[in-house]
């Protein structure tokens, strides 16, 4: 044995290591498998199969023999070969039902799916089912399907499962047919085979079809052993029946699909890198052309920004074409197209060349670029060839006239093939993960939603092109947040640094926003000297290849490792004068995130559902009474997204309305629609299966042409939106849908929003000239007629498109003068907002103007006079004036302001319908404090004055989009908008939702706060659906998926029957106090030092005390502290000096800090700097006679009180209750107190800020009954034992309480204790109806509503909590508000408040208050004599 071991060859050892390499195994079989759609990812594969399942030696021999028999006669031997694979190799055995030849099979035939629209059927040939009784014994097809795990098709020899067949007029491939069958029966997996090709099909209902094709031709040999092992691992009987659901093949596929965000994010980064590379290549090609005598792009007036936009357009085209080719929208299976045009196959050809000749060889050829340009022109203008007919699809994004310098010049710019290879590779191979988890996935465009592709496009809007004025480099950094920096600045930092650590810190600090290149430690490591000469030489070689300048290479060498690589693997080095890509100012300040398809569709469905019914969800909750609209009425709807980006929400609206349109057609007997709906459920269609169906395409094109409108501030976004809509409505035989009249570029917030503003010549119209108003109306009506004529043009060919474009050009020409009026009015608004800082004067030395509207109206009237031509002086001056005013206080890097005058751009929407029927979307957000810097002070003032009606406040940008959206709706309009959750908070709520509610807008559905459902953003969002139409009787509002009784408030909480005001009560005073405000840590010292002072001199115990702060209360199991503090009480300085150690410390550590404080804010501080700023003498007096008191941390998620000893100094981070009554502890621990706190308090991040005056002094406390005291005693004892036993603090304890997965006995007991406390509190209030689950107990107050307490785990804005249900919270808060209102009314009546607040709904004084006043129980100035003692010792059974 030992001899054999020692003589083992290195080659054999390497072979063994390779065999044990799980990652290598998986990569080898994946490389040999043709996958289309979302498939198993490497991390999931390695977790499930660290090593592929083995095929035993005997089975390998049997496989070889069976394979040889099949190969001897593939027709005659196919049946036995397939049976062997399924029954034996995969081990299906008795779980397999297999058709014999073409014979009927009762069990399988009942699963046959008719496809009436194509006059055919799909009949399964085999099935894998749960072992047991024969499948044919089941009573019906539905029962049989529930037992089936996989359905299979046997195909004729030589049939590729993923190629179209000529069997019938149905263009679907065998794999697509099998997917249709699987979905129909709810069986997610299928297997189609002709013996050679084994196609695994994953067909989740509502999802995209995945296919993975295994080629069995070499299975008899050893070369593809990993493929056989993988096939067996995935489909073995054990994987179906011996694993829990998450570990089955379907579970593993779902787990892999959940990582789809990674693909989207990685694709976004790679597409941007491809644009960077193309921009650089254009710059390099331009330089080479100039060497041959060309004038160069700069001399031709082509800006760096235009080069960037052109590069983006190229990548948008490439992504679109790959999507269309893979989904069968372009004839990728046509040999002429594949060889001469196809983008997908071009990449394969270039890759083969690179593998054979080396990538460097591609630097010197340019044929691929010529082929790409030919493909673009073919898509735009068509191809008419004997063997290839490609219709002219048209489309502005493919129009060669947009960038003639790129694709119409002769010769073309020499873009090298290496660049084209990496451009194509960047969107076909995605690099996911980092380090050892990094993997390369072949991208399937079948697996990508249009929304994902749109998001990839949209990320490009955050960047722009520039020309370098000096040598620069691209630094390493997080994808999408890298910096481009001058080399000179790096060298300057290096010169100022003594070592690499100092340099790393400087680099980290200088370029830390928005994200630093790396951590300081990582930067220091990267800046360290090279390890050896070989490493240095390789660095020099790469830098020289990138810079082509020896001197520049020498300068770059010290920074080599912090310079990122481009897609070619070369360092990003930017020469002086070269083009490069960097983050633009346009969108870097605003939030844009990938909106998953399901979220966009949810928003759209709830917004549009009320509009597709004559009687629907707004009128009645009974769906049986809903009356759907006709097709014509659906096509009358007008739906907009006013910040559309890549049109994710318009795509969702297109899908939703098209489905409803098909339903309407079917109701009218349209044969195509009837056949389509008979074959599938409309709401469960998938991309491959249904989106190519002619009736779907037709419905979507109708919806796009009649119903959808969009706007975006960025013209590139408009092109992206068009592309997204073309992708979901592309007819391979027709040009793209005409969208130029529907998708426009402009600032949705800036401009005229209604005809009153045009007619009144003011954005706040007060009066109007009747003659001008009539003229304006007539002009807009004429524009409406002209635009309607565009839609009326029939035909789907280029001639129809030409006529539409001509008609639109005519409309725009006729609207130009009115739009100039709009520009003047909008400019006057901006200029007026800036007039306090910008000096405006009337022409020719006139007076200074502060209000520009009168002059603007005068100019507007002049330009619309009869006979005034475009080339007259008055029009020229008006245009210049409008342009100047619109640029008022525009930031230096700001985008030129382009107003959008809604009734002039889309006149038919406003003249015929009074506005849009619905507005949907996810508008950009930008914190209110950033608005001025990003957009200019005049712009922010414009938003306040002309959108928010003068309502000031630091509102988020999204709040103004809410206001604008509702200003564009008609009287029955609906909205569905997503925003940051701050929309429902503070200034943003007051500016938007509060004002909308006062104007009559109803919030009918909402999600208050939820995590963004993709990893592209770490934020909380809210969703708000509003209606201008009232709800019918019995129709409930929906909050967070649950019906609420009294509607939804503007803070997106359940509406209440009691108004939300609450006033501090006299009876609540003198119990709850904030701790001492010390000002600084100079007073503090360690416990050891304090005890040492006391040991030396016992007098120091007079001034040294434990110092308890919020962290001690929440994190320490004992609620103890190891910090002590010096406290000179309210002593004079002379007495303080008698404690020299303490006084010396305070004098040296505290006095200097006090001297630095603002004397206005801290008046009198220096007169008593040795004392606390706020010592809280009232607190000290209140606890003087107590041994214990109750404390809550002031900023806390838990809001949970504890009992602690007195004799401490309590910090300002604590709230102290001067009581040792454990009944009060119970009340403060109850759900009623917690939810009252949430209702009354503000938040700090995720923590609640507990303020005694807002919470404790406003709540009317119940009698502290024995049941409460018993519950409080038990809580105090048992919880303390639990925390000490586990050695955890209050926060960690309650994290376990609110964690549903924690089922430890002690935590369950703690939950039960809180449930008892809640019930004891409710009993103490006398609300016995809430405790009676039978509903027999009547409410004590007829206004009360009976609801279940519903203790359990609930999703709340504070996260998951074990608490009472939403309805109970709402009702209890209402009852507590009623108690506060009555108590405050009584106190005001009894004269206890000097300046009482006035509330219109304040109740009259109670009988008890009338009695007290009649008995004369009043002191001087309204002082209470004897009727209240602070609620601590009230008799049981009373409240007041």
From TrEMBL:
* Keyword terms of this UniProt record: Methyltransferase, S-adenosyl-L-methionine, Transferase
| Pfam families tied to this protein | Eco57I (PF07669), MmeI_TRD (PF20466)
* EC number of the protein: 2.1.1.72
Specify whether S-adenosyl-L-methionine is a keyword of the entry. Answer: yes
What molecular function terms (GO) are annotated for this protein?
A: nucleic acid binding; site-specific DNA-methyltransferase (adenine-specific) activity
Q: Which PROSITE patterns match?
A: N6_MTASE
Q: Which GO terms describe its biological process?
A: DNA modification; methylation
Q: Which SUPFAM superfamilies match?
A: S-adenosyl-L-methionine-dependent methyltransferases
Mind telling me what this protein is named? site-specific DNA-methyltransferase (adenine-specific)
Q: Residue ranges of region Disordered?
A: 1394-1421
- According to its UniProt record, which reaction does this protein catalyse? a 2'-deoxyadenosine in DNA + S-adenosyl-L-methionine = an N(6)-methyl-2'-deoxyadenosine in DNA + S-adenosyl-L-homocysteine + H(+)
């Amino acid at each position: 044995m030992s001899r054999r071991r020692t003589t083992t060859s290195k080659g054999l050892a390497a072979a063994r290591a390779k065999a044990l390499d799980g990652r290598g195994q998986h990569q080898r079989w994946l490389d040999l498998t043709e996958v289309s759609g979302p498939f198993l990812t490497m991390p999931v594969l390695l977790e499930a199969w660290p090593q592929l399942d083995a095929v035993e030696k005997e089975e390998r021999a049997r496989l070889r023999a069976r394979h040889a028999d099949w190969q001897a006669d593939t027709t005659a031997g196919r049946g036995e070969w397939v049976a062997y694979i399924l029954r034996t190799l995969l081990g299906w055995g008795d779980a397999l039902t297999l058709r014999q030849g073409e014979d009927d099979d009762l069990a399988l035939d009942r699963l046959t799916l008719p496809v009436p629209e194509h006059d055919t059927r799909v009949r399964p040939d085999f099935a894998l089912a749960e072992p047991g009784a024969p499948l044919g014994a089941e009573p019906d097809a539905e029962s049989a399907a529930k037992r089936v795990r996989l359905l299979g098709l046997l195909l004729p020899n030589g049939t590729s499962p993923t190629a179209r067949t000529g069997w019938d007029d149905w263009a679907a491939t065998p794999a697509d047919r099998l997917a249709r069958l699987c979905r129909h029966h709810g069986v997610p997996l299928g297997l189609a085979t002709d013996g050679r090709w084994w196609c695994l099909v994953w067909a989740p209902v509502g999802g995209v079809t995945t296919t993975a094709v295994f080629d069995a031709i070499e299975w008899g040999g050893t070369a593809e052993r990993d493929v056989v092992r993988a096939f067996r691992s995935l489909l073995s009987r054990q994987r179906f029946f011996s694993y829990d659901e998450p570990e089955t093949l379907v579970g593993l596929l779902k787990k892999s699909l959940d990582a789809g965000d990674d693909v989207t994010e990685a694709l976004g980064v790679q597409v941007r890198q491809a644009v960077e590379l193309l921009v650089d290549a254009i710059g390099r090609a331009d330089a080479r052309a100039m060497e041959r005598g060309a004038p160069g792009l700069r001399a031709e007036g082509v800006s760096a920004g235009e080069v960037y936009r052109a590069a983006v357009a190229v990548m948008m085209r490439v992504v679109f074409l790959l999507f269309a080719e893979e989904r069968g929208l372009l004839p990728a299976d046509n040999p002429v197209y594949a060889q001469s045009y196809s983008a997908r196959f071009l990449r394969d050809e270039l890759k083969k060349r690179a593998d054979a000749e080396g990538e460097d060889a591609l630097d010197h050829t340019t044929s691929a670029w010529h082929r790409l340009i030919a493909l673009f022109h073919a898509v735009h203008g068509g191809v008419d060839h004997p063997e290839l007919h490609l219709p002219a699809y048209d489309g502005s994004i493919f129009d060669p006239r947009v960038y003639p310098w790129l694709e119409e010049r002769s010769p073309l710019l020499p873009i090298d093939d290496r660049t084209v290879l990496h451009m194509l590779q960047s969107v076909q191979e995605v690099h996911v993960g980092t380090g050892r988890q990094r993997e390369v996935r072949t991208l399937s465009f079948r697996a990508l939603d249009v929304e994902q592709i749109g998001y990839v496009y949209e990320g490009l809007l955050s960047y722009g092109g520039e020309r370098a004025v000096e040598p620069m480099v691209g630094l390493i950094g997080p994808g999408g947040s890298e910096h481009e920096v001058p080399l000179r600045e790096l060298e300057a930092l290096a010169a100022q640094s003594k070592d690499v650590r100092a340099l790393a810190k400087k680099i980290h600090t200088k370029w830390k926003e928005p994200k630093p290149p790396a951590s300081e430690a990582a930067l220091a490591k990267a800046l360290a000297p090279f390890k050896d000469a070989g490493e240095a030489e390789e660095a020099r070689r790469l830098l020289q290849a990138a810079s082509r300048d020896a001197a520049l290479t020498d300068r770059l060498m010290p920074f080599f490792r912090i310079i990122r690589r481009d897609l070619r693997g070369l360092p990003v080095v930017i020469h002086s004068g070269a083009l490069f890509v960097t983050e633009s100012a346009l969108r870097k300040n605003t939030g844009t995130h990938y909106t998953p398809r399901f979220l966009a569709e949810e928003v759209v469905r709830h917004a549009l559902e009320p509009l597709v019914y004559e009687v629907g969800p707004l009128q009645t909750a009974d769906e049986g009474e809903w009356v759907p609209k006709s097709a014509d009425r659906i096509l009358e709807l007008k739906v907009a997204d006013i910040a559309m980006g890549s049109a994710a929400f318009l795509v969702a609206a297109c899908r939703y309305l098209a489905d409803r349109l098909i339903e309407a057609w079917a109701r009218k007997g349209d044969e195509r629609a009837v056949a389509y709906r008979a074959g599938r459920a409309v709401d469960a269609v998938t991309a491959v299966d249904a989106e190519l169906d002619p009736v779907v395409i037709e419905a979507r094109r109708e919806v796009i042409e009649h119903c959808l409108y969009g706007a975006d501030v960025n013209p590139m976004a408009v092109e992206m939106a068009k592309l997204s809509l073309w992708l979901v409505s592309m007819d391979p035989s027709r040009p793209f849908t005409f969208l130029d009249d529907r998708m426009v570029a402009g600032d949705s917030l800036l401009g005229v929003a209604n005809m009153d503003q045009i007619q009144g010549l003011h954005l706040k119209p007060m009066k109007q000239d009747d003659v001008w108003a009539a003229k304006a109306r007539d002009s807009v009506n004429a524009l409406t007629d002209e635009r309607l004529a565009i839609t009326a043009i029939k035909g789907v060919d280029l001639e129809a498109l030409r006529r539409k474009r001509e008609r639109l050009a005519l409309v725009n020409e006729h609207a130009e003068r009115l739009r100039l009026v709009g520009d003047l009015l909008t400019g006057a608004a901006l200029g007026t907002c800036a007039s306090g800082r910008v000096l405006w004067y009337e022409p020719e030395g006139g007076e200074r103007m502060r209000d520009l509207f009168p002059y603007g109206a005068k100019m507007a009237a002049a330009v619309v006079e009869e006979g005034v031509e475009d080339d007259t002086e008055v029009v020229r001056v008006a245009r210049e004036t409008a342009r100047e005013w619109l640029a008022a206080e525009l930031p230096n890097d700001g985008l030129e302001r382009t107003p959008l005058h809604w009734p002039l751009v889309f006149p038919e929407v406003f003249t015929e319908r009074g506005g849009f029927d619905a507005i949907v979307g996810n508008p950009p957000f930008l914190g209110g404090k950033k608005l001025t810097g990003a957009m200019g002070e005049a712009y922010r003032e414009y938003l306040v004055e002309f959108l928010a009606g003068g309502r000031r406040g630091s509102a988020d940008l999204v709040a103004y989009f809410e206001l604008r959206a509702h200003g564009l709706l008609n009287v029955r309009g609906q909205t569905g908008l997503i925003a940051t959750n701050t929309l429902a908070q503070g200034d943003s709520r007051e500016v938007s939702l509060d004002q909308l509610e006062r104007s009559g807008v109803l919030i009918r559905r909402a999600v208050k706060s939820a995590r963004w459902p993709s990893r592209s953003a770490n934020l909380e969002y809210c969703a708000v659906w509003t209606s201008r139409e009232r709800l019918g009787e019995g129709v409930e509002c929906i909050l967070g998926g649950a019906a609420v009784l009294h509607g939804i408030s503007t803070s997106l909480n359940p509406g209440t029957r009691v108004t939300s005001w609450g006033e501090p009560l006299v009876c609540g005073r003198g119990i709850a106090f904030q701790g001492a405000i010390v000002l600084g840590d100079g007073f503090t010292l360690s416990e050891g030092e304090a005890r040492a002072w006391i040991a030396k001199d016992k007098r120091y115990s007079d001034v040294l005390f434990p110092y308890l702060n919020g962290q001690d209360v929440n994190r320490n199991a004992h609620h103890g502290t190891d910090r002590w503090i010096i406290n000179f009480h309210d002593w004079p300085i002379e007495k303080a000096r008698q404690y020299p150690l303490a006084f010396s410390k305070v004098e040296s550590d505290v006095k200097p800090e006090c001297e630095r404080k603002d004397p206005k804010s801290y008046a009198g501080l220096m007169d008593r700097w040795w004392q606390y700023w706020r010592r809280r003498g009232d607190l000290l007096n209140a606890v003087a006679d107590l041994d214990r008191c109750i404390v809550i941390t002031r900023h806390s998620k838990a809001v949970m009180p504890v009992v602690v000893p007195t004799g401490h100094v309590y910090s300002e981070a604590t709230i102290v209750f001067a009581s040792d009554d454990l009944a009060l502890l119970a009340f403060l621990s109850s759900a009623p107190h917690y939810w009252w706190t949430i209702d009354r308090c503000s938040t700090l991040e995720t923590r609640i800020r507990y303020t005694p005056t807002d919470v404790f002094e406003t709540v009317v406390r119940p009698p502290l009954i024995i049941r409460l005291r018993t519950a409080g005693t038990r809580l105090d004892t048992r919880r303390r034992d639990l925390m000490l036993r586990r050695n955890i603090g209050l926060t960690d304890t309650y994290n376990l309480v609110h964690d549903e997965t924690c089922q430890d006995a002690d935590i369950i007991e703690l939950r039960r204790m809180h449930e008892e406390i809640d019930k004891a509190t409710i009993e103490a209030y006398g609300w016995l109806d809430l405790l009676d689950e039978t509903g027999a107990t009547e409410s004590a107050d007829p206004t009360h509503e009976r609801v279940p307490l519903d203790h359990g785990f609930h999703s709340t804005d504070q996260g998951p909590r074990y608490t009472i249900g939403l309805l109970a919270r709402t009702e209890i808060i209402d009852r507590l508000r009623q108690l506060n209102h009555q108590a405050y009314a009584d106190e005001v009546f009894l004269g206890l408040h000097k300046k009482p607040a006035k509330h219109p709904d304040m109740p009259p004084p109670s009988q008890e208050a009338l009695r007290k006043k009649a008995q004369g129980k009043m002191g001087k100035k309204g002082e209470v004599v004897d009727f209240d003692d602070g609620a601590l010792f009230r008799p049981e059974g009373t409240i007041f």
